[in-house]
Design goal:
There is one protein chain. The chain has about 110 residues and is an alpha/beta fold. The protein has a domain at about 30-100. It contains two helices and three strands. The protein has a three-stranded parallel sheet with strand order 2-1-3, sandwiched between helices. The termini are far apart.
Length: about 110
């Protein structure tokens, strides 16, 4: 039997980039970082640890804690996910965030 079969990864197909990504920040010193929690893997504990580590390394860094932004649950259709991400990004921008930590494992 001489048969050929195609295989698709369970992770899905790679998609082309449809818009440019944001440039990385040169430093977190003096920046405001927002936390967006996806309700996975003990974020209440982990975000506290992240804050301690960031403050120890980056002078003047401010954190907008995840409690001040909506919790994002994984799932839903791509359009709903996009709208949710845009809403949270707009809220974070209004709060003065320079960047976001998105999610916490899962």
């Amino acid at each position: 039997m001489n048969e050929s079969m195609g295989v698709i990864s369970p992770a899905g197909l790679s998609l082309p980039l449809t818009h440019p990504l944001s440039k990385p920040l040169n430093t977190l010193q003096g920046k405001t970082i927002g936390e967006v929690y996806n309700n996975h893997f003990k974020g209440e504990l982990m975000f506290r640890v992240y804050r301690e580590q960031f403050h120890a390394q980056f002078e003047g860094m401010k954190i907008v804690p995840f409690e001040e932004l909506p919790i994002v649950y994984v799932g839903g259709d791509p359009m709903t996910q996009r709208k949710t991400a845009q809403r949270i990004a707009a809220m974070a921008k209004e709060m003065g965030c320079d960047a976001l930590i998105s999610g916490n494992g899962g």
